Please model this.
Amino acid sequence: MADLKYYDVLLKPVITEKSMNSMAEKKYTFLVHPSATKVQVKEAVEKMFKGTKVKSVNTMNKEGKLKRRGQTAGKTAKTKKAIVALTAESKDIEFFEGM
Model:
């Protein structure tokens, strides 16, 4: 397994109605690398977004869905999602501002 750098851990933010509502509680949702740990996610958020302090990280693995095209069946890629909670005195992530 390759060594993950902090800039390889966060893949993209998750923009849904539920994730946008949780931003009021300083919780942000990201798609992360499938082999990333909670410690790596915490380090990546604190290094990429200056002024942020992470309180906790919750991760969940999502299996790929079964898809069919005619008689051929396959699966979509599996993903990993992380919900990052910031401390009360932490600075907000500017990337999500104005959405």
The mean pLDDT is 92. The first strand starts at residue 10 and ends at 13.
